[in-house]
Amino acid sequence: MGRSRLIAVVLALALVGVVMVASASLPIATLRYERPSYLLVKHVVALALGLVALWGCSKIDYHVFLKIDHILLLTTLGLALLTLIPGLSVRGSWLRLPGPFQLQPTEFVKFALIVASAAFAIRKGELIKEFSQGVLPMLVVTTIAVLIALKQSDFAMAMIFLLIVLYMLFIGGARLSHLCGVLCAVIPALALLLITTPYRFSRILAFLDPFQYSTTEGYQLIQSLTALGSGGIFGRGLGESRAKLLFLPEPYNDFIFAIIGEELGLIGGLFVIGLFAYLAWEGYVIASRAPDRFGTLLASGITFTLAAQAAINIGVATGLLPVTGLTLPFISYGGSSLMISCAMVGTLLNIAQRGSHEDISRLWGRDRRPSLPRSRYAGGVTAR
Question: What share of the chain is helix, strand, coil (3-state, %, to 5)?
C-alpha cells in the first residue's frame, strides 16, 4: 500500500533526524544552555506535535482547503508580517511564543501557497492560460510573500516561494511562454539584488572559490566539505564527528547533512538521499492517482516542495549551491519546518486514501476531465 510506504519513509527520515540532532547538537547545547539534551528535547517535542499534525491532516478531507484557501493564505501572511514588529519577533524571522518556543510563519506560508495555487488553478480552468487572469494574480500574491521573506533576510525562503508558485502554475496549465517571460523578468532582478547586497554577493564569491574566503563567507562551506570528506565510505562512527565541536556553524540545522556524511559516511549520505528520492516517487504516484484535479495539484505541489528543499539543503552542504539557510525536511532541528512538513505529508496521505489509479498525464494538465463528475469539488472550474 502506498500509504504505509509513505509513512515508513517519513518515520525513517524522522528517526534519522532525532539521532543526528542528538549527536550534532550536544556540544553546542552543553556550551550555550549547560544542558546537553536541551535542543534534542525541543526537537522531540516538535516531532511529537508534527506527528499529531500528520495524523490530523490525514483525517481531514483535503477538499476543505478549497473552502479556506484564502483564509489560510491571509492568516499565514499576516503572521509573517508580525515578525517585522520588533517587540513580537526574534531575530526578525520568528514569533515569540510562551516558554522557550518560537514559531517561523514563513514555513506555514509555503503550504498556504501550495493550497492557494492549486485552488486558483481549479477555479480559473482554461482562463489560467491568459496572463492577466491566470498568471498575474498569483504573481502579485507571491511578490508579497517574497518581499516579506527578503525583509527577514531570508533569500532562500523567498526563492522557495517563487519556485512553488511557478511550478504550480506550470502544472496547473499556464502557458510556458508566460512563465518563461516571468523568469526573464525575475532573473535580472534577483541578480541585481544579489550584487547590491554585500553579504549575499560575498556568498556567491565564496561559493565560486571558498578557500579564498576561508575565514569569512567561505568558512562554513570549507568546514562542511571537510566533514563530508573525512567521513569516507563508512564514516567516523555515530557521535564521532569533529566538525560539530564548534568548527561547523549550524551542525544540527542547515548543515546537518555534513554531520551525517562525517559520522555515517558516503553510505549514510546515500541512504538519506535514497529516502528522499523514494518520498518524491511515492508523492508523485499519489498525485497521479488522485481522484480529482485538485488532489493532483495539491499532492504534486507538496511533493515538489519537500523534494526541492531537500535537494537545495544537500546541494549547499556538498558545495553544489551557494550557502543558504534552508532546513533538511524531517531531519534538521527546527520545529516550524518539522511540523509543517509532517502536516503536508498528512495531506498526501489523505489524498492517497481517496485516490484511484489514473494516467499520470493528468499531472501535467493534458487531461482535465474530473474523475468524480458528481463531486462539487471535481472539474476544471469551481465557483464560490
Answer: 70, 0, 30
